[in-house]
Amino acid sequence: AWALTVLLFLAWNVPVAAVQAIVSIERLTELLDEAGMEGALSWLETGTIAIATLEGWVASLTLSTMQMLTLYSGVLTLLSRAMGWPSHTMIGISTLNKMWTFNFVLVLLASCIAASLYDTLEHVLRSGWCELVGIIGRAVPRNTDFWLNYLVTETLLFIPLLDLLQVLPLLLLVVDAILRRIYRCCCAVGDGGGALGRWARGEPYLPTLVQKLMFEYLYSRAAMVVSVGVMFSSIAPIVAVVVACWLRFASAAWAHNTRWVLRTPQGAGFDAGGVYWPHAVQKQVYALLVSQLVLAVTPGPLALGSFTSVPSASSASTSAVRPFRTESMS
C-alpha cells in the first residue's frame, strides 16, 4: 500500500506538467507556429481575453479537476484501509495525512515548477536540495495569479456546485436510475431482501456512497485553501480576502450539509470528528513553517512584479491592489 501511494504521488506530476505546459502561452505559441496556424497564432498573441482565459481559468480549473479526481475518488481511502488501520477514525486520519501531503507538496509547491520539472530535477541533483528551496521561492511570486484564480474557482464554482447543489449525487442518481432500468430489463425483480433487492425496487444506492460525512475530505479542502492563503497573502493581500470569503461560504454550506444532507458514520470503529482537529492543526503549522522558509528566499523585485509579468484573468480585479512582501518573513 505504501509503494502504491508513493507511485501515485510520483505519477501525478506527469499529467500536471503536461497540462500546464500545454495551457501556457509560450507552449501554445510554439505548437501553433509548428502547425502553421497563422490566424490562431495572431489571435493568441493579440487577444488579452484568450491569454487571461488560458493562463487563468483553464489552468486552475484543470488542476482543480485533476485534484478532485485523485483525492476525493476514494483511492487514498482504499490505500489507507489496505495499510491495516483498525478503526474508521484511524483510516480517516491516515487519509487526511496523505491528502495534506498530496495537496501541499505536489499540488501547491510542485505545480509552481511543474512546467520545468525536469530542469528543476537537474538543478537539484547538481547543486543539492537547498537549491530546491530557492527554485520554489523564485517560482512562487510568478504563480500568484494562478493561485488567485484557483481560489476564485473554488469559491464561485466548486462550493455552489458540489456543496450547495450536490451535483455529484444528482448525476449519480441519474446513473443509478439507468442501471436499475437495465437490470429490470435483464433480470426478474422478485420480493427478495438484501441490498440488491431493495435497490432493484427503487431504493437509491450510488448517491448514498458520496453523501457521507467524511471529515478528512472537509479538513483537506480547508487546509488546502488556508495553505494557499499562508503562502501567497504576503505577496498579494487580496488572496487573504478571497480565502476569508471561501471559509465563510464553506462553513455555512458544510454546516447545512452536516445537519440535513450527509450521513454520519456510526459504530464502534468511529470516535468523533474532533479527533481530526489536532492532526489538521499540526499540518497547518508545517505549512506555515515551509511557507516562511520559501518566502524568506523569495527575491523582492520578482515578488513585486508578479502581477505585471503575465496578463491573466485576475489582472483586472487586482490592478488596484499593489502586491507587497512583508520583510518580517525573513
Write the layout of secondary structure elements.
Layout: H1 2-23, H2 25-35, H3 38-46, H4 48-71, H5 75-82, H6 88-109, H7 117-127, H8 130-139, H9 144-164, H10 167-186, H11 194-200, H12 206-210, H13 215-232, H14 238-260, H15 276-296, H16 300-304, H17 315-318
Describe what you observe in this structure.
- The chain is mostly helical.
- The chain is 73% helix and 0% strand.
- Helix 2 (25-35) runs antiparallel to helix 3 and helix 13 (215-232) runs antiparallel to helix 14.
- The chain is globular, with a radius of gyration of 22 Å.
- The two termini are 40 Å apart.
How big a fraction of the residues is strand? under 5%
Which spans of ≥5 residues are poorly predicted at pLDDT below 50? 301-330
Q: What is the element string, with H for helices and E for strands?
A: HHHHHHHHHHHHHHHHH
What's the shape? globular
- DSSP helix fraction: over 70%
- Mean pLDDT over all positions: 77
Over the alpha carbons, how many angstroms does the gyration radius reach?
22 Å
Number of helices: 17
Main sheet characteristics: none
